[in-house]
Amino acid sequence: MVSSGQAQLVVKEETALRWMSVSKVVKETVDTYTLYLKPRTGERFSFKPGQFNMLYVFGVGEVPISISGDPKNLNHIAHTVRAVGAVTNSLTKLREGARVGFRGPFGNGWPIDEAVGNDVLIVAGGIGLAPLRPVIYHLINNRQDYGKVFVLYGARTPNDLLYKKELKSWKGRMDMDVLVTVDKGDETWKGNLGVVTMLFDYVKLNPDNTYAFVCGPEIMMRFTVINLKNKGLPDEKIFLSMERNMKCGIGVCGHCQFGPYFVCKDGPVFRLNQIKMFFGKREV
Amino acid sequence: MSEKDRPLLIEAQDFNGLLLSLKRLGYATYAPTVRDGAIVYDLVDSADDLPIGIGDVQEPGSYRLRKRGDGSFFGFVVGPHSWKKFLHPPTVKLFTINSNGKIVANLENSDQKLAFIGVRPCELQAIKILDKVLLGGEYLDIVYASRRKDVFFVVVNCIEPGGNCFCASVGTGPEAKDGFDLCLTELLKPDGHYFLVRIGSEKGRELISSVHYRQATDEEVELASRLLTLSSEHMGKKLEIKGMKELLYRNLDHPHWDEVAKRCLTCGNCTMVCPTCFCTTVYETTNLSLKYAEKWRSWDTCFSQEFSYIHGGPIRYSISARYRHWLMHKMATWMDQFGTLGCVGCGRCITWCPVGIDITEEVKQIDKRDGEVKVKVE
Question: Residue B151: its chain A contacts at CB < 8 A?
């Protein structure tokens, strides 16, 4: 007999469907909402910045959503959801008190420990800021552990910017540089115009001690990588959060494959040199 | 060969006794049987249900049964089914949940003991691979784990390879080395019909003692080993696996991917018949009152656009990219994921491809024109 039969049927906590209740909903943009979820009394939930949950709506289904809140605030687990499909549409219609199913947290998260003592550059495009917001909170909570902090954020229009209040308060801090740009402004916009990579002109990076954390559409990440390489950052210090279709979150459904990796369990955060052979290749 | 390791010999008429003993031990006995013009795997009651005297003829895109004119029990290779369907079911209900969020019915834990009779060496390797994929990681697949608990393997070595077989190239056959309870080699001799039996486990030893057997003679052992050597020399297909992973990794932009795409219908047959393809999707159904929902899981295929869909569109939009993903998974990325090839050389994907796309041939084409890059038209 092939010996495996004795596999123990121990179901790990994160793989079981559990529930939280919506404690607050913040409308970020016309189609994007941040749901703050409160664990049930007596239950605890903690996560690493960059990890995600599979959120479940009764009768509709499950989707992977990055955890987008402060990793220290374990009573309000934030998930920023854009209404683009059946499940995300249902999620964004939920209001305070509603129940949300979840499994998680899954994924590896950003290398916040490895980056200690270094400068940190965060580059985000659109809703790509969501999985990076926990990092920003972490950096602020542990400011003395890191060198300089840069946040470069681009969105299509001023209306598409997430976390507007926080962006404002982060911009006001003396201990980090926060730069925002939009592809297309409106009559009230007085900030930068152009894609996020043009913000590289305004920051002076030290290539020897900077970690770059990047998340956004793949095309945006490709051009960000080109800019980071031009600035002299080594591949080992460039980290990208990848997106693929996911059904299970635990590496058995096969959907999230990216080259030899399963984005759900080997990622979603990858070191550039790890994925170099496949990153930027069409349709991998 | 020590006397202890010497294979045993049973007469074909005693094969039924093995089957009956397995039933007595509480196993559900699955074996090859003929249905709808193909050899499929299903419950059998006795050896009479086996495809006795039936063979198969396989070519790219073609599968036909034939009368062999002998009384062989296993005179065929593999059909459209694989054992995967019992361990990793095509559809399964994961749970039923009510609108209060209470799971009212969990996955039915399968406590059925399964006996797989007539498992081919390539198929045994496929199960070993699925074990790695679905049980070997940080998280178990509970559906597979519950069905995999107690499986009895009666493996039958392949003395006559099929037209699309290439197990000898990938090292999975035609003879099983380990991982079985019993391993049989069918011997049709002028003086009778026998099975040479190797014992692979204590369970196997107990089972064989339930029927009449004797020690095999040197001549019989020699005959079996000669037949198996001949078999490995007469595989219908060949595949060079040395350096294959690197070959494929460096040819992501090879023009041959587009050439295959012109023939590929993206029907997904290859993934359904593949004994190692494990991808699944999940979906939710509700009753009309919206009081209950069920979560179902079924096999999925990477040949559909939905498979890689994320907001905005599918990642693998072109047929070329979908074929490349599948072939590279079997032949290259699987190595990095699980330490083995994802292909066992059974040839099913070649046989059941409606247009006869041949995975061994496609790898050969890329090898022949190693380094060619498709010209981009922009």
Answer: 1-2, 5
Check residue B287 and report its DSSP letter: -
Residues 6+ apart with CB under 8 A from B102: none
Q: Where in chain A are the domains? A: 13-106, 119-241
Q: Is the pLDDT of residue B109 over 90?
A: no
* A247·B302 Cβ contact <8 A: no
- Express each pLDDT in B335-364 by its tens digit: 999 999 999 999 999 999 999 999 999 999
pLDDT mean over B105-125: 92
Q: How far apart are CA A119 and CA B205, in angstroms?
A: 65
Domain ranges of chain B: 8-233, 244-368
Determine what percent of chain B is predicted with pLDDT higher than 90: 94
Which of A255, A281, A282 lies nearest to residue B307, judging by beta carbons? Answer: A255
Q: Which residue, among B140, B203, B250, would best test binding to A if mutated, counting the most A CBs under 10 Å from its CB?
A: B140
Helix %, strand %, coil % of chain A (to 5): 25, 30, 45
> Does A245 contact B128 at a Cβ distance shorter than 8 Å?
no
Q: Hey, is the C-beta of B128 within 8 angstroms of any chain A C-beta?
A: yes
How many angstroms separate the CA of residue A243 from the nearest CA in chain B? 8
Pick the CATH number of A13-106 from 3.30.470.30, 3.40.50.200, 2.40.30.10, 1.20.1250.20: 2.40.30.10
Sign, CA torsion B209/B210/B214/B219: negative
Tokens matching residue A68: 């987008």
Compute the nearest-CA separation of A261 from chain B (Å).
7
**A113 burial level (CB within 10 Å; 0-12, 13-18, 19+):** exposed
Nearest CA in chain A to B203: A1
Is the Cβ of B280 closer than 8 Å to some Cβ of chain A?
A: yes
User: In A, which residues are within 8 Å of B283 by CB distance?
Assistant: 61
Q: Inter-chain contact A244–B99, Cβ cutoff 8 Å?
A: no
Per run of 10 residues, the mean pLDDT along chain A (length 284 residues) is 48 89 97 97 94 97 97 96 96 96 97 98 98 98 98 97 96 96 95 96 95 97 97 97 96 96 97 96 92
Q: Which of B146, B153, B293 is facing A1, going by the closest CB pair?
A: B153
Residue B182 corresponds to which tokens in the numbers above?
Answer: 């019993």
Other beta carbons less than 10 A from residue B375's beta carbon: 7
pLDDT for res A169:
96
Same fold yes or no, A13-106 and A119-241: no
State ipTM.
Answer: 0.93
CATH of domain A119-241: 3.40.50.80
Enumerate the residues of chain A whose CB falls inside 8 A of the CB of residue B284: 59-61
Using a pLDDT cut of 70, give the percent of chain B over it. Answer: 98
A283 → closest Cβ in B134, B278, B315? B315
- Please give the full DSSP string across A57-104, using - where no structure is assigned: ETTTEEEEEEB-S-TT-TTSEEEEEE--SHHHHHHHT--TT-EEEEEE
What pLDDT does residue A6 have? 44
User: Chain A: residue nearest B307 by CA?
Assistant: A255
> Under an 8 A CB cutoff, do A244 and B308 touch?
yes
Q: What is the pLDDT of residue A12?
A: 84
